[in-house]
Amino acid sequence: MKLNLNIQPLSSWIKTSSEPLVIAGPCSAETEDQLVATAHLLANTGKVSALRAGIWKPRTRPGEFEGIGSIGLEWLKRAKAETGLPTAVEVATAKHVEEALKAGVDILWVGARSTANPFTVQEIADALRGVDVPVMVKNPVNPDLSLWIGALERINNAGITKLAAIHRGFSSHEKSAFRNEPMWDLAISLKTHAPDLPMINDPSHITGNRDLIGYISQKALDLDMQGLMIESHIDPSVAWTDAKQQVTPAALVEILDHLALRKPETRNTEVNDKLTELRNQIDKIDDLVIQKMAERMKIVEQIGNYKKDNNITILQVNRWDEILNKRTNYAKALKLSTEFTEKLLELIHSESIRKQTEIMNKNEAGQAADKLTHA
Ligand code: PEP
Ligand code: MN
Fold first, then answer.
1. Residue range(s) defining the domain that contains residue 214
2. pTM > 0.70: yes or no
3. Count of domains in the chain?
4. From the CB of 52, is ligand 1 less than 6 Å away?
5. Which of 14, 241, 251, 313 has minimal Cβ neighbours within 10 Å of its Cβ?
6. pLDDT tens sequence across 192-217
């Protein structure tokens, strides 16, 4: 399903100084000196297209630094006047929107905690009505694609067409190397729903660790995301928020210089021909996989009927364990990862169970109703 969003291209609202597009700046504006000095260093790299800084900080726990507040808008004005960098801040209430616009902030963004709350998003959207300002919407903290889409729709419905999504990863109960799990499939899913919507990756909040920023940035570019938002601080060791994930402007340059820029397409016909040939092979294999799945489900139906006639339960745990073990061992020998094989088998298995449950519960009345609807 394609989303019905009215969107202008990224190039209509941000001048890309160099490839890829980079928005950088401190997690929080802390002091006028810290912000302005960081802005100068970032502008001097020639690789940064906009300056970000949080001045109202949504903190998970009370008592942490909650942002410098409106005074930070004056510092942003000065940073922009001295460096020429357009500015971006997070807004979470109608009042933030009003103040930021009044202070001439160029780009607004909706933070992950706000995106998770439709009331908050609607309040921001209402405050934006009739205003022509670019807005970037971070994914919600929880892995819920509809919430992310809903927030984009609310902002777009308010008339904002200079719109982008920011992928900053999702909260997860599972332990991992990342502060927020990237869950790339969710970001890819949004891209397929809205191919024209620019997507910017935020490797700082995904990793929570400056050493992993380069790795995530590369992956984002390889997935054809349009830009990066990276937290950069003149001295991360003394940063008031998110100290572990911020990098100095010099370290930012180092990270950017190591990124490989690959194109989604090429004009080289030899390369295109080879790609077409390989894609044709994949298409054939995918068709076969689907055909085999359909054959498998037909047999599952037979088993379901047989179990029903003989009063046997649908699930036999031993049988499922045996399938899982045998197949994962086989798959491993064929160099498929166990995680992938288990996920695939679980998906197939749950569909088989669903089909058999349907068969088991189909009584005469159900069959009669079926006949009627198909007549
Ligand atoms: C931020 O950008 O500093 C921030 C608070 O991010 P998020 O909303 O992604 O947590
Ligand atoms: Mn931050």
1. 10-257
2. yes
3. 2
4. no
5. 313
6. 999 999 999 999 999 999 999 999 99
